[in-house]
Amino acid sequence: MKSITKQKPIEEIQNLLQGMDKVFVVGCGTCTTLTKTGGVEQVEAMKEGLQEMGKRVTGGTVIPTACDDMTEETMKENEQYIRNADCVLSMSCALGVHQLTLYLDKPVIPAVDTLFIGVEESPGYFHEVCSQCGQCILGETAGICPITACHKGLVNGPCGGTNNGKCEVDKEKDCAWTLIYNRLKEQGRLDLMRRYQPPRNHHVTLKPGIIKIG
């Protein structure tokens, strides 16, 4: 499971950096490296782009995993370069941005947008598999999440718009409920298609999410 990101338009990054002339750039060795939005090559390209923009780049690094405790150690190793910067430009997912703010007293500016949590189905092709809704029904839908895979988020389906196994919202996309039907049929559990799923309880995903274990 990876955080899937895309780089912000350079114009947006430029606007976010207004008034900040000296920049330290941080990438991530896991998720954004995999999606080619914040690995070594992208950090180097960003540094060049910032210089063309008239910014002074005090340095840059790629944290092995920006969303864990390795962030603090890497920030300490680059302390002198960060000290000379007005801000840190983060090419990590939103969780990495948050983690950086825990160890820095300078503004942390995101250079990418976090889209979803997903898996790599084939090289370079990622798709969302979980919406982290807090009320999992995968046991009754053969491991395919209708909240995530269905454009309408239907927990009782299919709707009347499915046609030849495709979705009416996006005719290139497989209907999630057709996929669920076919997999349940293979498993000999088609009776679950007749089981009514009550409306989702949105109280289970109150924001911000907090949980204490133990």
Can you describe this structure?
This protein is α/β, with parallel strands linked by helices. The chain has two domains: 2-115, 3-Layer(aba) Sandwich (Rossmann fold); 130-196, no CATH class. Helix content is 29%, strand content 21%. It contains eight helices and seven strands. The longest helix is centred in the first third of the chain and has 13 residues, at 40-52.
How are the secondary structure elements laid out?
Layout: E1 2-7, H1 10-16, E2 22-28, H2 31-34, H3 40-52, E3 56-63, H4 70-77, H5 79-83, E4 87-91, H6 94-101, E5 108-110, E6 112-122, E7 125-128, H7 146-149, H8 176-187
Parallel strand pairs: 2-3, 2-4, 4-5
Antiparallel strand pairs: 1-6, 6-7
Write out the strand line-up for the largest beta sheet, numbering strands in chain order.
3-2-4-5
CATH top level assignment of the largest domain: Alpha Beta
- SSE order in H/E notation? EHEHHEHHEHEEEHH
Largest sheet: 4 strands, parallel
* SS content category: alpha/beta
Q: What is the tally of beta strands?
A: 7
Distance between the termini: 25 Å
CATH architecture of the largest domain: 3-Layer(aba) Sandwich
User: Looking at CATH, which topology of the largest domain would you report?
Assistant: Rossmann fold
- Helical amount among residues, as a percent range? 25-40%
| Shape call | elongated
Secondary structure tally, helices:
8
The domain count comes to 2
- Beta strand %: 15-25%
